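F.,

This is the one I mentioned.
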């Protein structure tokens, strides 16, 4: 037999094998199984292997969210299979009821978990905007479009680095008065009389200008710049596809690319960009989805020990 033919056969077997051999000891664990709109859900998966793994949240509303993945560091094996971490957020617009967490490898569904989404009420508010704020929000410009594109490119990027799986600490003292809440259903009333609606993606802390703003967890500064709509802004990457965001600051104290520790001073709060008064806007994104910061401060963003205990059991 010619050498090239032997090579071809080996190659063919090597390619064909994974198609017939499904992971024999596939396991996955989910925390928590009862969720609220805006809540992140963590999944540990062992035995599915490969880069084709996908996790999504589906309901009769369709596919609600997709997950970001990373490999636990240091590496963990369950029954010889490497454990991968996945994280997604239930959108704040998700309807209450039953839903499914679906794990796919390529085009094959390999596991489904039944979960429930609880009922959650969000506050409604109307915000009157003066001429300046109306222009910031309602008048398009090439610069705004370019800045929005850059921000979205960052938030939808899934890197490889794991900086923090801990709970996130609020960037200003936690008992600070709030002027806006996660998931607020907002109506903006322009000075022209027209209105527009939006869902508030984070928490507004009513801090005076000059208040120290701190990183909520270890991470890397992905964005630190003045933006037309959000003023002096910082975005920190904490996990692949997991970001915290800080808006409207009067001063920035960090540069893009800097690796920061939890509590590192990012700058001072202010009222830059679209603001009706001094405040700090704090926001968390998981795979692009708005995530409730209060839930992220109440428990680890990825509870490795609890998930591994569940996975091994
Ligand atoms: Zn806000």
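My design for it:
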């Amino acid at each position: 037999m010619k050498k090239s033919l032997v090579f071809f056969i080996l190659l063919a077997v090597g390619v064909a094998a994974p198609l017939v051999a499904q992971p024999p000891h596939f396991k996955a664990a989910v925390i928590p199984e009862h969720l609220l709109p805006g809540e992140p859900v963590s999944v540990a998966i062992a035995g599915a292997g490969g880069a084709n793994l996908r996790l999504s949240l589906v309901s009769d509303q369709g596919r609600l969210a997709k997950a970001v993945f990373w490999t636990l560091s240091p590496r963990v094996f369950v029954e010889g299979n490497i454990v991968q971490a996945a994280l997604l957020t239930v959108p704040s617009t998700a309807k209450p009821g039953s839903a499914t967490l679906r794990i796919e490898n390529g085009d094959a569904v390999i596991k489904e978990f039944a979960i429930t989404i609880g009922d959650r009420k969000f506050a409604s508010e109307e915000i009157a905007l003066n001429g300046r704020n109306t222009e910031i929000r309602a008048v398009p410009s090439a610069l705004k479009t370019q800045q929005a594109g850059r921000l979205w490119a960052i938030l939808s990027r899934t890197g490889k680095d794991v900086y923090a799986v801990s709970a996130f600490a609020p960037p200003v003292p936690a008992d600070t008065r709030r002027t806006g809440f996660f998931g607020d259903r907002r109506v903006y009333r322009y000075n022209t009389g027209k209105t527009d609606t939006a869902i508030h993606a984070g928490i507004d802390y009513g801090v005076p200008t000059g208040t120290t703003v701190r990183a909520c967890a270890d991470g890397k500064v992905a964005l630190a710049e003045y933006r037309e709509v959000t003023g002096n802004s910082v975005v920190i990457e904490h996990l692949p596809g997991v970001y915290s965001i800080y808006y409207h600051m009067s001063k920035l104290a960090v540069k893009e690319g800097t690796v920061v520790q939890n509590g590192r001073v990012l700058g001072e709060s202010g009222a830059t960009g679209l603001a009706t008064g001094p405040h700090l806007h704090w926001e968390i994104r998981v795979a692009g989805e708005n995530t409730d910061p209060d839930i992220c401060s109440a428990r680890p963003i990825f509870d490795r020990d609890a998930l591994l205990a569940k996975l091994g059991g």
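The domain at 17-120 is CATH 2.60.40.1930 (Immunoglobulin-like).

Talk soon.
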